[in-house]
Fold these 3 entries.
Entry 1:
Amino acid sequence: MTKFMVSSIGWIYLVIVLDWFTKKIVGRKISLRSRAAEWKEAVEMAIRREFPEDVRGMGLKLIRENGSQPRGASFVRDMVEFGIG
C-alpha cells in the first residue's frame, strides 16, 4: 500500500497485489481510505484474475516488503478462508 496527496481531494490510498514471481500487478484498489475492506477487494480481484477456478491448495502466501498490511482479525480470517497464508 502506498498513499499520495491530491491537493483537491486529500490523501489517496493505493493497494497493489503483485505476483512476486512475474512482478505483474494482479489486483489493485484505489480509495480515500485504507481499511481491511479495501485490501480484501484487491486480493479478491487478484484471485478472480489468476485463479478463476479456486485458489485453495495452491500454497499462496501474502508477503510485504517495507510496507504495511492489515492485521485485523477480519482480514486474517478472510485470507484463511481464501486458503492464503
Entry 2:
Amino acid sequence: MSKLNLEVPKLPLNDGASIPMLGFGTGTALYKKVNDGKIDRPTVDQVKTAISVGYRHLDSSEAYGTEAEVGLAIKESKVPRSEFFITTKVNQTMDDIPSAIDQSLKRLQVDHVDLFLIHKPDFAGGDPVKLQQAWAAMEEVKASGKAKSIGVSNYSREQLEATLQTAKVIPVINQIEFHAYHQRDGLVQWAREQGIATTAYAPLIPITKASPGPVDAILPGLAKKYAVNEGEILLRWVLENKCVALTTSSKEQRLSDMLRICTFDLTPKEVEDLSQAGLQKKFVGFT
C-alpha cells in the first residue's frame, strides 16, 4: 500500500515548536510485559508499517520497552530523521533524569527527541517538592538540546499547579486519557489557559471498551455523512477539541484509514452533540 498523501495538521506548542496532531502510539498493544532487552521484530514491523502509510509522529516510553524497536524502524524506513516527531518518556529512572534521556537516545538511535515527558507523577508520592525537583531536571535536559520540548503525562490540575510554581519552562503538553466518556472535568481547558496542550491517549475507548453507551446513537450517522468509520469520528472529535490524538493498529489498511481524519471537519454542533452525549456516561480505562 502506498503512502496516503495527506497533510497531518500540527498543533503549535508554547515554546514555538509544533506537534503533528495524529500520532502512532507504541504503548497498550505493543507494551512489553517482559522487557529483556531483545528486539521484538513484529513491533519493528508494525512501526515501519505506520511510517510507510504516512505517520511521522511516533510515541514511545522507557516503560513500554519499545524505544529500541522505534529506533530500528526509523533507521530501516530510510525516512530522514528530520521528518519525524519523536516522543518518549521517563518512568523507571526518575531518580536520574539526565541519565534517562541518554539511555533513551541510545535505544532510539537519535541525538535528540522532539518531546520528552515525565510519564507519571506517582514517583512524587503527593510531594509537590519532588514534582518541582523533577521538573528542574527536565529543564536541564531541554537546555542540553537532547529534547527540543518537555512536558508531562498523567498529571492532574493540582500536580500541574505545583510544577508551575517553580517552573522556568512551562510544560508544553500533558498526555492523558481523554475521550468522550472521560472529558477530564475541565482539565484540558484549564491547561490550555496555562499554555499547556493536551495529547489524548485511548481516544477510541467509547467503541473499544465502553460500548454500549450514549455516543452509539450519534456515531453511525456521522460516519455515514463523512464516509469514514466510527473510530475516525472519535479521533476527529479529539482534534476538534484542539488536542493531539494517539492511536495504533497492526493493520495497514486501518492505519491508512485513520489518516482520513485529516480530510474533514466536524461542525461545532456535531462536536457539542458528541460531548454532551459523552457526559452521560463515565468510563475510565487507565487514569
Entry 3:
Amino acid sequence: MPPKTASGLRTSYSKLNCWLSCPRKFKYRYRDEMPDERTAVALVFGTAIHEGCEAFLKSLPSGNPVGLDEVLGVFNRALSDSAKLADEQGAPMDWGEGSLKQVSEKGEQMLAVFLDDVDRSIKVAATELAFEVELSAGHVVTGVIDLVLDEGNGRYRVVDLKTAASTYGPDRIEFDLQPTVYIGAAEKIFNAPGRIDFEYWLLTKTKTPALKILPVVRNARDHAELLETIDEVEEACLRGVFPRQRGFMCFGCEYADHCAKA
C-alpha cells in the first residue's frame, strides 16, 4: 500500500503509472521492495540524457552556457557509472541488441540535436525541482520536475524531458497522468492556479534524432479524474489487487524471472 502522511495518501506519478501499467510489478517494486534482476537500458539511458541536458539548462542563466563537449562528458560519465553500479549491485545492464558503445553514440547524436535546437532565450526558473504538495485534502503527491520556465506575468511552463523511439501519439498526449500531476503541483508551488503550461520536450532515438516540443492541456475534469485514480489505486492496494498485466513490457522487465516462477 502506498504510504500515508498526516495529510493522507502520499503517492507519485511513477507509482501510479507503475500500477496502471502492471499491478504485479508495482507489488514487487513498492510493496515487496524486491531488488531488480536486471537494469533496463532505457532507464539508464534516459537518466544520462537528463543529466546532460540539465548541465546545459542550468548554465543558461549565466549567459555563458556550457558547450557540447562538456554536456557529452556529463552524459557519458553518467552512462558508464550507472552501468558499473548495476553490475556491482547484481542487476546487470540489459543492453538488448545494442552495446554501451552504440548507446553512447546514439546519445551523443541526440544531445547534439538538443543543443542545436533548444531555444536559448528561455528564462529558466528551476531545474530538477523536487516537490511534495497536497493537491487536495488527503492527496499528497511527490516528484521531480525536470524544468520550469518563467513565462512572465505570473505564468510558468513546466517541461518534462523524454527520450523515445518515436514521437508520442494522441493517446499519450490526451491521457497520460504526468502532465496532470505536474501542473497541479506547480500551481501549488508557484501559487499560480490556472497559470501553468506544460510541454514534453521529446528527444527521439530515430535514425536522424529530433527534438519535438509537445504542448499538453489539462482541465478541471482531468484533475478530478487524477484524484479518483489515486483513490482507486489505493483501494486496490489495500485489497491486495496486483494482477499481472501481460504484454510487450514483460520482455526486459526488472522482475520477469521471478514473475514467471511465482
